Amino acid sequence: MASSFWESSQCRRWLFSENDLKERRDRYHCTFMEAESAQVLNDEMMRFMNLVGKSLGWRQTVIATSKLLYKRFFVVTCMDERYDPRLIAVTCLYLAAKVEELGQYNLRDLLKKVQEVQSREGFQIPKYSHQHVHDFEFHILDALSFDLVVFHPYQYLSKYVRDAQIEDQICVDAAWSILNDSYLSDVILLYPPYLIAIAAFYMACVQTNVDSKKWFSQLNVRLDVVREIAQLIIDMYKGRAAVAERQRRIRPEVMEDVNRKFESNFAMQQEEHKKRANELKRKKQQEKPGNAKKKVRR
User: Fold this and answer.
1) Which runs of consecutive H residues, i.e. helices, occur in 122-222?
2) Other C-beta atoms within 10 Å of 70: how many?
3) Which of 48-52, 111-115, 162-166 has the lowest mean pLDDT?
4) What is the pLDDT of residue 298?
5) Which GO-annotated molecular functions does the record name (predicted)?
6) Residues with Cβ within 8 Å of residue 189, at least 6 apart in sequence
């Protein structure tokens, strides 16, 4: 693993200019629903990963890794009939637990929790098997060129709070909350994580009237870039507030459309997995010592 962000694959290959990101989104757009519905679907997958991770008691960095892997995948892959976003989200949770070296965790617990959350929240997530997740794990790893090194803003925020000697817990909680919400935007694909942390800290200080001007004035960073990031996060909040009611209204319809779209794919995958399991079972039976002796006698 890279010892610093600047040496990492995240810095070298997974930060984009706004124009490049827009071009990629245009190229790899969703082919099975309108742009607005696709945005609702992606937001729902972010919410879904957050709820599953929290239900499992995972650290916020693990949940954030799953969200970033999901975002990266659909920056380099078209959202079409080959890739069910719900299964991609579940597999990204599984991969995130591996990447972050989460202890005392297994896939069975994850799939059980997925069904608990989807039953409670109505995400309409099918009952995926271990094989479903393992199959799609390969697709994601291949699409990401095995670039799994992830740096998040959280570690930087903790350091900045200590450096600035901020003891106002309301301010700290606000900054942390802003960072969590920032994963609904594209800032993690556009800017280094340390700048995102500074922007969230700056926004929280303004929001809670904490005077930290002296600390910010001593930073060796371009404050216009920090304000640029803050503005993108503010625009994300405003944009979602403007369409929140409509998105709530169309959410059940969007998830139902996705369910219908991938229902036949899921049935075909189930059938394929049964065939594989039966074939493996036959091979194991043939390899038993008793069966080998019977073969020799013939």
Assistant:
1) 130-143, 154-164, 169-182, 187-190, 193-207, 213-217
2) 24
3) 162-166
4) 43
5) cyclin-dependent protein serine/threonine kinase regulator activity
6) 14, 15, 16, 21, 71, 72, 75
Check: CB of residue 97 under 8 Å from CB of residue 119.
Answer: no
Q: Same domain, yes or no, for 126 and 206? A: no
User: What pLDDT sits at residue 295?
Assistant: 45
CA–CA separation, 49 and 42 (whole Å): 11
Q: How far apart are CA 236 and CA 200, in angstroms?
A: 13
Total residue length of the chain = 298
CATH number at residue 164: 1.10.472.10
User: Can you tell me the mean pLDDT for 128-132?
Assistant: 90
pLDDT above 70 for 208: yes
With cut-offs at 50, 70 and 90, classify the pLDDT of residue 75.
very high
Structure-token match 């082919």, residue found? 31
Establish if 67 belongs to a structural domain: yes
Contact 210, 204 (CB under 8 A): yes
What distances in angstroms separate CA 112 from CA 30, 98, 116, 260, one per listed residue?
29, 18, 6, 23
Asked, for residue 211, whether it belongs to a domain, the answer is: yes
28 and 109 housed in the same domain:
yes
The per-residue pLDDT of the chain, averaged, comes to 88
C-alpha 49/C-alpha 55 separation (Å) is 10
Say yes or no to pLDDT of 232 above 90.
Answer: yes
Phi-psi category of residue 48: left, alpha or beta, with phi > 0 → left and psi -120 to 50 → alpha: alpha
Host domain of residue 197? 154-247
